[in-house]
């Protein structure tokens, strides 16, 4: 059963036109340990707000930059965060829809409503931070690749001396944040890069001067009944963007290699903005030929109107990253970034956190960590691993993200995961689901087994890491994928393999 965005975000104020954050404005972030919510807190702080936050899940990889900024965090929800004297209580709450989707009457939210404190999606705070800085929004949207491409654009603009601000749904490295890894960057240039998510209207607060649309296919079956509903959401957002009172019509960089994006471009006939198409496969304003290189890298041979053909080496591999790189080329063209900066960024950028991230190479076992949680993303990520490690046994280790997605796409997940040599399926991460009976990790493992691949329902993320540590062999590549707590699998597996190697060395030395 699908729900509307309003039902998912029950109790939240609708998206509105962005406004600057006032100096000293009190902003409380509910769920502050999340990737996006932590960025909202950081950006509101940099914009001059007085920020607090809470999260019952405790500290995460996203909270150290909040602590370093002096932002007060509480590791529990409490209505006392709101029920304070009028001169001390928050002036608004930034809330994640992961909470309103399952508990719209949470006491902290009820207290805010009773006291007239506005409840807004954390994306609204990010949009307001961009309005505070006066920077032009550059939004990266699509079903897959948003974090990688948004991080890439931050890398490109920073390397070109354009000092962007930004929000990316994955950790940016210290050279880009100027401090410790974080999902936000605060700069003084002319542009603000933001990852724009289509789920339940999350991208509605953003009115970009430049939108980059990577791909569009069916996902989030709790919100979108079919692919047409997804296309409707992207089209509607772009049309609303063009309807805002901006000094210049918006621009769209559209990757028409993807059939869903090509359909959206067809729908946008008469759209008042400028559309710059890019493609790996056919005619477009910016087109490229892909040449795979050694060690999983790529080369793009790019043709652009009025310019001679140019070659760009791309450090990160896989066809999906070639498409992301071509979108970066398109965005650079639209923003007027010179080829010398573009060439350097494409050759140097090695990704963002949890996007084919190398966690360790211990005893001949390579452990990679990735956020892939959709059949297409899994397929493309496995292809990239095969390109980089063509002669190794590949483990696909997957923590399914939400029961509804897993149930609706069970056979597609099985097809994608069966491309690995061995598969382990951890317990499903429920997320915003309330019904945990509609499928199981054992059901997915059984479907994979019917496709001729050994697959194990391996239990919790901790139990899955333990199972892998006892099963993997030298020469194996272990690709861990998923949202939720799947990162624990990769981290714990590396620790266990390191411990095993130390013990083996100790035994050898003692013998």
Write the layout of secondary structure elements.
Layout: H1 5-8, E1 26-30, H2 35-46, E2 50-54, H3 64-68, E3 72-74, E4 92-95, H4 97-100, H5 107-114, E5 119-121, H6 122-133, E6 136-141, H7 146-159, E7 165-172, H8 174-177, E8 182-185, E9 191-196, E10 210-213, H9 227-242, E11 251-255, H10 259-267, E12 274-279, E13 286-292, E14 298-303, E15 310-314, H11 319-335, H12 339-348, E16 357-362, E17 365-370, H13 375-388, E18 394-399, H14 403-408, H15 410-417, E19 422-426, H16 441-449, E20 455-459, H17 461-469, E21 477-482, H18 486-510
Parallel strand pairs: 1-2, 1-4, 2-3, 4-5, 6-9, 6-10, 7-9, 10-11, 11-12, 12-13, 17-21, 18-19, 18-21, 19-20
Antiparallel strand pairs: 7-8, 13-14, 14-15, 16-17
Helix pairs in contact: 2-6, 7-11, 7-12, 9-10, 13-15, 15-16, 17-18
Could you explain the architecture of this structure?
The chain is α/β, with parallel strands linked by helices and 511 residues long. Helices cover 36% and strands 22% of the residues. The strands form three sheets. It has a ten-stranded mixed β-sheet with strand order 8-7-9-6-10-11-12-13-14-15, with helices on both faces. The protein has a six-stranded mixed β-sheet with strand order 16-17-21-18-19-20, sandwiched between helices. The protein has a five-stranded parallel β-sheet with strand order 3-2-1-4-5. A hairpin with a 2-residue loop joins β16 (357-362) and β17 (365-370). α2 runs parallel beside α6, α7 packs across α11 and α9 packs across α10.
């Amino acid at each position: 059963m699908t729900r509307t965005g309003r039902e998912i975000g029950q109790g939240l104020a609708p998206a509105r036109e962005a406004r600057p954050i006032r100096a000293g404005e009190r902003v409380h972030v509910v769920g502050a340990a999340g990737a996006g919510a932590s960025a909202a807190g950081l950006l509101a702080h940099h914009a001059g707000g007085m920020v607090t936050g809470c999260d019952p899940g405790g500290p995460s990889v996203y909270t150290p930059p909040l602590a370093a900024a002096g932002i007060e965090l509480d590791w529990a929800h409490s209505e006392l965060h709101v029920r304070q004297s009028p001169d001390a209580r928050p002036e608004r709450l930034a809330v994640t829809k992961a909470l309103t989707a399952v508990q719209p009457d949470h006491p902290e939210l009820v207290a805010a409503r009773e006291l007239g404190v506005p409840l807004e999606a954390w994306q609204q705070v990010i949009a307001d931070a961009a309005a505070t800085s006066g920077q032009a929004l550059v939004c990266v949207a699509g079903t897959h690749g948003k974090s990688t491409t948004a991080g890439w654009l931050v890398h490109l603009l920073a390397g070109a001396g354009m000092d962007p601000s930004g929000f990316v749904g994955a950790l940016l490295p210290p050279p880009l944040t100027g401090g410790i890894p974080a999902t936000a960057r605060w700069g003084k240039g002319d542009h603000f890069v933001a990852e724009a998510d289509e789920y339940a209207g999350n991208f509605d607060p953003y009115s970009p001067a430049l939108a980059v649309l990577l791909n569009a296919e069916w996902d989030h079956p709790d919100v979108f009944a079919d692919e047409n509903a997804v296309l409707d959401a992207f089209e509607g957002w772009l049309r609303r963007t063009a309807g805002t009172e901006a000094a210049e019509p918006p621009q769209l960089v559209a990757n028409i290699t993807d059939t869903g994006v090509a359909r959206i471009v067809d729908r946008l006939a008469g759209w008042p903005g400028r559309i710059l198409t890019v493609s790996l496969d056919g005619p477009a304003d910016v087109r490229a030929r892909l040449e795979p290189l050694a060690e999983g890298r790529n080369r793009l041979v790019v043709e652009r109107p009025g310019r001679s053909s140019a070659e760009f080496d791309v450090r990160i591999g896989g066809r999906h990253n070639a498409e992301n790189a071509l979108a970066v080329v398109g965005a650079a063209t639209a923003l007027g970034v010179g080829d010398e900066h573009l060439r350097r960024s494409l050759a140097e950028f090695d990704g963002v956190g949890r996007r084919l991230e190398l966690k360790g190479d211990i005893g001949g076992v390579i452990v990679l960590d990735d956020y892939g949680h959709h059949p297409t993303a899994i397929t493309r990520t496995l292809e990239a691993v095969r390109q980089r490690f063509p002669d190794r046994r590949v483990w696909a280790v997957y923590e399914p993200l939400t029961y509804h997605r897993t149930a609706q796409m069970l056979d597609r997940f099985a097809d994608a995961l069966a491309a690995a040599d061995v598969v382990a399926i951890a317990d499903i991460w429920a997320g915003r689901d309330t019904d945990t009976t509609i499928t199981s990790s054992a059901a997915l493992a059984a479907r994979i087994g019917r496709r001729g691949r050994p697959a194990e329902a391996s239990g919790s993320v901790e139990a899955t890491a333990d199972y892998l540590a006892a099963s993997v062999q030298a020469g194996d590549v272990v690709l861990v994928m998923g949202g939720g707590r799947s990162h624990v699998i990769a981290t714990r597996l590396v620790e266990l393999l390191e411990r095993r190697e130390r013990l083996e060395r100790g035994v050898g030395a003692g013998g």
